[in-house]
Design goal:
alpha/beta; 2 domains; 6-stranded mixed sheet; 11 helices; about 45% helix
Amino acid sequence: MYDVLRAYRDQLALLETQTFTSPQLLGLQAVVNAPGTVPASQLIGQLASIVAYFSMRQSTLAAFFANNLLFWDFFWMWRLEAWKRKLGGKLATMLDVVAEVEALVSLAAYQFANPMYTVPELSSEALEFTAEGLGHPLIFSTERITNDFSTIGAGCTGVVTGSNMSGKTTFLRTVGVNMVLALAGGAVCASRLRLSPAQVYTAMRTQDNLAESTSSFYAELKRLRLLLELTAAGTPVFYLLDEILKGTNSRDRHRGARALIHQLHQRPASGLISTHDLELGALADELPGAVTNYSFNSTIEGDEIRFDYHLTPGLCRSFNASKLMQLMGIAIDVSAD
């Protein structure tokens, strides 16, 4: 605890003495340099010292003599209470300032460490996300495949189909993580990104819960209910739904996914849905301009499956599940197709 408080003290001391031009940093500096008060770094330093002296009693022999001869615990408890009265309940505010400064420093360091990343542009259009050269920041640059993607306006859904391991889920995560970085004020892994403020909402890793008697399918339904409640409240939402309704049979999955897309079409929301259900692609004809089909494809060369990880307009026309099962030793009669 002493080391943590000492680190807070040093951070606050830097914040108190630095010269800033940013209005946000000047505002944070004004909080810790309030006129007529003891500097925040000094107060945190005093608390660190009190904690350090309290920790000396962890030695049983030292605590015995200190408490019996010097009333050690009583004295430092008195000092702690005096410190609390002097602080006047401002500790939480100071720690909030430290947390915000740490977040800003982290975003700045991230941008400095990635000079090839770009600063996103804010759009006044409703639910715009327009990206060029968009990639996932956690994939090494030598292996990263980037894509262009754009959607503008509420009620728009991109249906992403593709074979197994072709990149559907990674692309949804790529969009999501770059949106979060952009809306937090950070640089993004793209050559250009323009977006409007929105609540990012995902349903990607829903799991069952034995303690709550919840199946993975029911857990996903609860996530989707939260999405509908959020959009019903009028909040602009950009949703990312991976392998939608995968926990049920194909007929119910198609019926439910189709109904959900129609419902979201009437809400202040747009986003991406990945699926193996190619029949959902027909929604592009039912809701022209609102539903757009995208796909990731693969090719099979002998016993090798090759992926290009490029986002392609239209439905997926290449499949590899049978080949993957064959490679795992499952006897698949492909001639029966």
